[in-house]
Structure formats: structure tokens, C-alpha cells
Amino acid sequence: MRKLIILLTFLPSFLMAQHSIEGTFSPVEDFTYAFLYKSSPTGAEYVDRAKVGEKGQFKIELDTAETAGIYKIVYGVPQETNNFDLIYNGKEDVVLHFSLTEGLEFKESNENKLWASYTNSIEMINRAISNFYTHKSGDEAAFKDIFKTLKETQDAFELASKGTMASVFIKANKPYIPETYEDISTYSKNLKETYLANVDFGNPLLQSSEFLTDRVRAYIFGMSADATEDFYKRQIDNLVNYIGEDNSEIKMALLQAIWSNMVQIEVDSVANYISDTYLLALAKEADNTMLVKVLTIFKNNSVGATAIDFPIHSEVDGKNIATTLHGLNMADNYLLIFWNSGCSHCLEQLPEVRKTVDQLDAKTLKVIAYGTQGEDVAWDREILKYPNFIHVIDRAWPRRFVSGEYGVESTPTYFILDKNKKIIAKPDSLEELQALLNDL
């Protein structure tokens, strides 16, 4: 009887403990915690964390509440880049090793080892295809052998993965396989046209993983060495057609990711094309007011847009003026600087800006320096160092926060305008600003 009581005492904890995700990190000194999240089509939910031990080891026990799906290990900040996905099928433990130099290796877990083995095999064959075309080979027999191997590899992994979660990814990744010899131009064309043909955008497993985002990014950004704006727009239109009328949530998420990439590489016209043609309507439909605001602010302040007007009350050449940005008619170009007298970068850069501006003809450029902090004694004192600038500060109440309308996230932020107040450049650094001003 006593043995039975002991068994019943430990039974609840035994039932709760299902499987685990464990592994090692290297180099050990670069890791502190492993955070586990369960991914879904709409985001990721925190599950648990484990402290990384002295030998780089960690272990996270999973209970029965954790269902099969895509999980994410976050190991650093920013979380968006310091993470990796794994498959948990609810039937096996996952054991892995992650190295900052060598990448991810699965020691245990048939699902993850199968997917990793598949991707490694396909990568090797893709290198052979690349070498074939790089050397401009016309050997049709060699061509057929390479693609025969590719087909056999794909078929073998599809068969081996039948009934597994990994099969979803293997089928979605199915490559284009020509039936007869194709030159590089024909092969590239057909590869582009079929790259997303086997992707089921409605599959929740794919929607929860990085696979979908990575493949879409490859389709948009990896299909041309010197992509034009028209090329990007065609690829985006094709992507939307592949996704279809349904799947509005994943469509919005993927388009937002591409929009962000276009902003990062400063292709404003394509970013605004995505917004105007698809993304803004999707955001409004989803009542995503924050995304609507971000898209609108970016468009209003893109290169080629007319700068947002605001009132100017300042002293110019010893005279008080009351006008607006659009009302200025003093130079062929204008430099709009958003700065703050408490910003160390601003206090370092503004003297250098002044030196550059002083070398230009007064009719070539006029500087409008907009203080972002509201009424401030330090600002009143600091502007005396720049008598040739037009100084503006938001002292009205309630404050308008013009810097927010311009999408200013840090100071100093620069906008170069033409005489009609159209934005012609948004330099990211002092060096870029100086180079642009010297070319005016």
C-alpha cells in the first residue's frame, strides 16, 4: 500500500513532464539564457527559459500543454536576428548544438535532422548547378546528371518524410527541375517563375516559421543581381497573386517585411508602391492603426514628396519673421535639421554642418534648425552659435510635435529640400550630408 501511495504522489509530475528541448551553445561566454517561444501565424508566445551553464548547456522541460508546432529559441538581442526555429512534433526530445561560427546542428530529433539533411543535400546540388553555369558548360550529359540527382534527392526526401511535419517544408521547397537542357537565361527565367509554385501560403506550419519569410525575401531580392524598381514591383505583384485573395494576415505580414527591407535599402518608390497598392488597405481592414500611421508618415516624408509645412517665427537678419516653411523664398535649397540642445551627437555635428554651410553661397542653401525639445534655456543659449540659421522651436500648447510628423526617431535628422520644398535627400550621416551639400 505504501508503494502505491508513493507512486501516486509522483504520478502528477510524471504526467506533466513530456519531452524537452536541450542543447549547448558556443562560445560559452557569449550566451546567458535560452528563451523558448511557440510560434504561430500571428506571432510568438513565450513558453519558458533556461540559464546557460558553465559548459554552454541548457535544458527546457516541456509539459503536455505544449503542442506540436514551430518553436523558436532566442539567445540574444535584438531578438529579431538572434534566434532560430525548430520543429517539435510532441513525440520526441530535441537535442541541438548552436555555434555562432558553425551554425545549428541537431543531435537528436528525427524531424529536425531530416529537414537539416534535406537542406544540406539541396544546397550541395545547387552549388553544382551554379558551377555548371559559371563555367559556361554546354555538356548536356552533365546537365542531365545534375538535375537527375536533384529529382532523385527531392523524391527520396519526400518519401522519407511522409507523415512528418518536415514534409510540409520539403514539399514547399521543391525546386524547379527542367526536363531538357536549358541555357542560363532560360533556366533563370523558369526558376523565377516557379520559385513559389509549391508554397502553400495557407499552411499554418509554414506561416509560423521563418521559412516563408526567407523564401519570399529570396524571391523578391535574390532573383536579380541588379534589380530595377520595375523588377521589384513585378515580383511583388506576382507574390500577391501566389498568396491569393485569402490569407490576409500572412499577406500583410509578408508585405510589411518586404516594405521594411525596401525602407532599409532606401528604395522609397517601391516601399510606397507596396503601401499604396496593397499594404495600407490591408492595415486599415485589420484596424492596425499603428501600421497605417507608420506607412503614412514614411510616404509623406519620402524622397520626392513635398515637405510638410509648419509655422516659422524667427529672427532673420535682425528682423522678426512670421511665415511658414512653404512660404520661404530665400535660397535654391534648404537644409532642415531636427535637433535637440541636450543631444550630444547634435552638439558635435552642428558645428561641422555650420563649417560646410559657411562655404556655400547664401543663395544656394538656407538652414532651418528645428528644436525638438520645446521651450528650453539651453536651446536659447545654443542657437546663438548659429546666427545664420533659421531657428524654430515648438513652444505652442498643445505642442504639435512636427518632428513626429516627419518620422524623426533620433537626432540629428537631416532633410535636404529644393526651392519648392520637395525632399531631394535624407542623408543618414554627417559625412553623407557634407558630400551632398558640397555637390549643390
From TrEMBL:
UniProt xrefs under PROSITE patterns: THIOREDOXIN_2
Protein name in UniProt: Redoxin family protein
Superkingdom in the source lineage: Bacteria
Signal peptide: 1-17
Occurrences of domain Thioredoxin (ranges): 301-440
UniProt xrefs under Gene3D superfamilies: Glutaredoxin
InterPro entries, A to Z: Redoxin, Thioredoxin-like_sf, Thioredoxin_domain
Keyword tags: Signal
Highest classification ranks of the organism: Bacteria, Pseudomonadati, Bacteroidota, Flavobacteriia, Flavobacteriales
